[in-house]
């Protein structure tokens, strides 16, 4: 059977302006993969008739399925249905079921229906109508030559309800969909993106099915392994074989899979070993603590964090020696050491970790922006202090500091 290719078009000037995120495209790609439909293109186009028409023309030439979200509302700048009707050469006509659904919606929500809402009851002649059980504008499946356009509202809840309840079952029946596409994420820490790619290059060079794709996020890297097969069981088996090969090449850097975060792994380890952690944060301002308390079960292993931003707070609330601040400075190894030691003592934890540095925008105590000290403290004979120099962006410095703190814990407590 011929492979089915799809693309996704998000309609709305607000998407281009960055006022809202195009989360619909990500979700749709994930759902289509479960049906063995490969998504090759993502588009975002504004509320402009000509540009919409151009995108529809391009999509129809190269894709079997074109999923369009947005532009189905009641206002003049909602142009999706009108533009698509023009493109496929079909008139718009009022749909009685859409009208009944619309009237019921306004009655149920005890709102007055303005006349412009009737625009949402207009559908393209010959289209399969997708009723909107979560909103007002119906969706449509519109055939055109060798392609099908699937248009849906841009409101995520409305779009997802249509896809799950009506569109995916309809496409499965219509296209006789049998294959599935399954992906797994392999997550790494302590190795850079370029180094990881070079280490697994022999696997990437010989890939066909499954495929291997390197991915990078803030402070860590991953490999996405994707397989296509007739059943999920067959796809899982293909993926497991590739995961075993990846483990042979770079297994020492793997910390988890799929949705598992480094915080998840650390919380689990601390719980299994009946250990606890506490933190003293300066430039991170509580972000490290947030990375922990976001994990289910963190309350059993994370005793607390004290944010001591100023010199007075470090000396008064945390108990860093004033002599250390005067002689070494707040941004120093000695200050990081005392912060971590006092965090452990104050919160009666097994380990203390500290963060102090210069987030910017200006240098501090003669230290450049991006200078960071992190200390992991067990006792006076067992501690480590590391110095880092991050890019001079306040957000990057703070986020990288948290990531490096998590890596320090993982390296010294779990990986050793």
Automatic annotation (TrEMBL):
SMART domains in the cross-refs: MoCF_biosynth (SM00852)
Limits of the MoaB/Mog domain: 7-174
UniProt-listed Pfam families: CinA (PF02464), CinA_KH (PF18146), MoCF_biosynth (PF00994)
InterPro entries (alphabetical): CinA (IPR050101), CinA-like_C (IPR036653), CinA_C (IPR008136), CinA_KH (IPR041424), Competence-induced_CinA (IPR008135), MoaB/Mog-like_dom_sf (IPR036425), MoaB/Mog_dom (IPR001453)
Domain of life of the organism encoding this protein: Bacteria
Entries under PANTHER family matching the protein: NICOTINAMIDE-NUCLEOTIDE AMIDOHYDROLASE PNCC, NMN AMIDOHYDROLASE-LIKE PROTEIN YFAY
Protein family (similarity comment): Belongs to the CinA family.
Name of this chain's protein: Putative competence-damage inducible protein
Source organism of the structure: Amphibacillus marinus
Gene for this chain: cinA
């Amino acid at each position: 059977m011929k492979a089915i290719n799809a693309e996704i078009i998000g309609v709305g000037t607000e998407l281009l302006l960055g006022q809202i995120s195009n989360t619909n495209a990500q979700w749709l790609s994930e759902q289509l993969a479960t049906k063995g439909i490969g998504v090759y293109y993502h588009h975002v186009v504004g509320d402009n008739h000509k540009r919409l028409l151009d995108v529809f023309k391009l999509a129809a030439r190269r894709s079997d399925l074109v999923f369009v979200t947005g532009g189905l509302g009641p206002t003049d700048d909602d142009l999706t249905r009108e533009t698509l009707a023009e493109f496929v050469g079909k008139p718009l006509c009022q749909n009685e079921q859409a009208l009944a659904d619309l009237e019921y919606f306004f009655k149920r929500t005890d709102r007055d229906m303005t006349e412009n809402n009737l625009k949402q009851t207009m559908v393209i002649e010959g289209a399969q109508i997708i009723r909107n059980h979560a909103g007002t504008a119906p969706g449509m499946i519109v055939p055109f030559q060798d392609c099908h356009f699937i248009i849906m509202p841009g409101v995520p809840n409305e779009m997802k309800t249509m896809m799950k309840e009506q569109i995916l079952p309809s496409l499965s029946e219509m296209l006789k969909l049998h294959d599935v596409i399954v992906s797994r994420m392999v997550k790494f820490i302590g190795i850079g993106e370029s180094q990881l790619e070079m280490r697994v290059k022999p696997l990437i060079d010989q890939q066909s099915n499954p495929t291997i794709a390197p991915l990078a996020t803030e402070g860590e890297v991953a490999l996405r392994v994707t397989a296509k097969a007739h059943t999920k069981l067959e796809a899982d088996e293909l993926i497991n074989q590739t995961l075993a090969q990846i483990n042979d090449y770079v297994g020492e850097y793997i910390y988890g899979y799929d949705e598992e975060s480094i915080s998840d792994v650390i919380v689990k380890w601390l719980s299994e070993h009946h250990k606890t952690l506490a933190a003293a944060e300066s430039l991170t301002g509580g972000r490290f603590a947030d990375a922990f308390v976001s994990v289910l079960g963190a309350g059993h292993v994370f005793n607390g964090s004290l944010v001591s931003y100023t010199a007075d707070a470090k000396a008064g609330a945390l108990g860093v020696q004033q002599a250390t601040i005067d002689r070494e400075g707040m941004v120093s190894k000695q200050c990081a050491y005392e912060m971590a030691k006092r965090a452990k003592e104050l919160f009666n934890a097994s380990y203390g970790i500290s963060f102090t540095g210069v987030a910017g925008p200006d240098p501090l105590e003669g230290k450049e922006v991006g200078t960071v000290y992190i200390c992991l403290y067990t006792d006076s004979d067992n501690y480590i202090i590391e110095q880092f120099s991050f890019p001079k962006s306040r957000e990057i410095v703070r986020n990288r500091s948290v990531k490096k703190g998590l890596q320090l814990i993982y390296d010294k407590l779990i990986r050793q």
